[in-house]
C-alpha cells in the first residue's frame, strides 16, 4: 500500500480503512486482514501510558512505537503523529519528522491550520509526506472539559473549509477531519483532491479511522461513544469475559 493507491481509492469512491496501532503484534494482525493504513497515534498517551491527554507524549515515545509497528508489517502504509512541541519551527519539524521516517513511518501527521502552512511546505521540500489534522485538535486543548472543547470547535469551524484548502495548497497529502459536522466534512471531501479521513465526522469522508482498543473492548476509560453508531453493543468483543473463562479453565 502506498500514497498513490490511497489517493486512487478516493477517486474511485472506495473507502479507506485506517486503524491506530502501537505495537508489532497488532500491526502484523492488521496487515494480515488488509487494513489500508495504520496510524501510530499520540493517542497512545491515553491508551498505552494511561495519561489524561496527549500532552505528555514525547518524540521518543513516538519513535519507540513507530519502530514497533514497522517491525510488525511489511507493506502497510504507516502514519506517525508528530507529538506536541515538536514542530513549532521549520527546522524542528524537519528534524522531528525525519526521526519518525527513519523509525519506519511513511508519513507524519501534524495538528493545525493556517499557522502550519510554512512548516508543511518546508517538509514537502524535504520529500516528507504530510497528513494534516483539523477540527478538534487535542494538542491545542489545555484542559479537556466540555466547555473548552465546545469553544475550541466553534472557533475551528469558522475557517475549517478554507483551512483544508490552504493546507492542500501547501502540500498536505491527506487530511484527518476530527469531530467535524458531517455536512462540513462532506463539503471538504468534495472540494479538495486529497483523501479525507474522518474521526467522529460521519461517513462522508473518503475513509474513517478508529482507535483499535475501542474496537476490541468496551472500556469505561477508553470507550469511544462514537462507536455506538457503528456497532450494536452485543457486537463488541468481550475480552474480559474471554480472559476470565480462560483463567477459570486453567485453575
Please describe what this structure looks like:
- There is one protein chain.
- This protein has an eight-stranded parallel beta barrel, surrounded by six helices.
- The chain has helices at 3-12, 24-32, 44-47, 59-71, 90-103, 117-125, 146-170, 182-191, 212-216, 239-250, and strands at 16-20, 37-40, 77-81, 107-111, 130-135, 174-178, 196-199, 207-210.
- With 251 residues, the protein is an alpha/beta fold.
- It has ten helices and eight strands.
- 40% of the residues are buried.
- The mean pLDDT is 90.
- Helix 5 (90-103) links the parallel strand 3 (77-81) and strand 4 (107-111).
- The protein has a single domain, classed as Phosphoenolpyruvate-binding domains (TIM Barrel, Alpha-Beta Barrel).
- 44% of the residues lie in helices and 15% in strands.
CATH class: Alpha Beta
How far is the N terminus from the C terminus? 45 Å
Gyration radius, rounded: 18 Å
The CATH topology is given as: TIM Barrel
SSE arrangement, N to C: HEHEHHEHEHEHEHEEHH
Number of helices: 10
Q: Which class best fits the helix and strand makeup?
A: alpha/beta
Estimate what percentage of residues fall within beta strands.
15-25%
Strand order of the largest sheet: 1-2-3-4-5-6-7-8
CATH H-level superfamily? Phosphoenolpyruvate-binding domains
Q: What is the count of structural domains? A: 1
Main sheet, how many strands, which sense, barrel?
A: 8 strands, parallel, barrel
- Helix percentage: 40-55%
Strands, total number: 8
CATH architecture: Alpha-Beta Barrel
Low-confidence stretches: none
Mean pLDDT: 90
Amino acid at each position: 500500500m502506498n500514497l498513490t493507491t490511497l489517493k486512487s481509492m478516493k477517486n474511485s469512491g472506495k473507502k479507506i480503512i485506517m486503524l491506530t496501532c502501537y505495537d508489532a503484534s497488532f500491526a502484523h494482525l492488521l496487515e494480515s486482514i488488509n487494513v489500508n493504513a495504520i496510524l501510530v497515534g499520540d493517542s497512545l498517551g491515553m491508551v498505552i501510558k494511561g495519561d489524561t491527554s496527549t500532552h505528555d507524549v514525547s518524540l521518543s515515545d513516538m519513535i519507540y512505537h513507530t519502530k514497533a509497528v514497522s517491525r510488525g508489517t511489511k507493506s502497510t502504509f504507516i502514519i506517525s503523529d508528530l507529538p506536541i512541541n515538536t514542530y513549532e519551527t521549520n527546522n524542528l519539524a524537519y528534524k522531528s519528522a525525519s526521526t519518525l521516517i527513519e523509525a519506519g513511518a511513511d508519513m507524519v501527521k501534524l495538528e493545525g491550520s493556517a499557522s502550519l502552512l510554512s512548516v508543511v511546505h518546508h517538509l514537502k521540500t524535504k520529500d516528507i509526506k504530510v497528513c494534516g489534522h483539523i477540527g478538534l485538535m487535542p494538542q491545542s486543548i489545555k484542559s479537556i472539559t466540555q466547555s473548552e472543547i465546545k469553544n475550541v470547535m466553534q472557533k475551528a469551524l469558522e475557517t475549517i473549509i478554507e483551512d483544508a484548502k490552504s493546507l492542500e495548497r501547501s502540500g498536505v497529502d491527506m487530511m484527518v477531519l476530527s469531530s467535524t459536522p458531517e455536512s462540513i466534512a462532506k463539503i471538504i471531501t468534495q472540494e479538495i483532491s486529497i483523501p479525507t479521513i474522518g474521526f467522529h465526522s460521519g461517513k462522508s469522508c473518503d475513509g474513517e479511522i478508529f482507535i483499535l482498543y475501542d474496537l476490541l473492548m468496551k472500556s469505561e476509560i477508553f470507550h469511544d461513544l462514537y462507536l455506538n453508531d457503528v456497532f450494536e453493543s452485543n457486537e463488541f468483543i468481550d475480552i474480559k469475559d474471554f480472559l476470565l473463562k480462560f483463567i477459570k479453565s486453567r485453575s
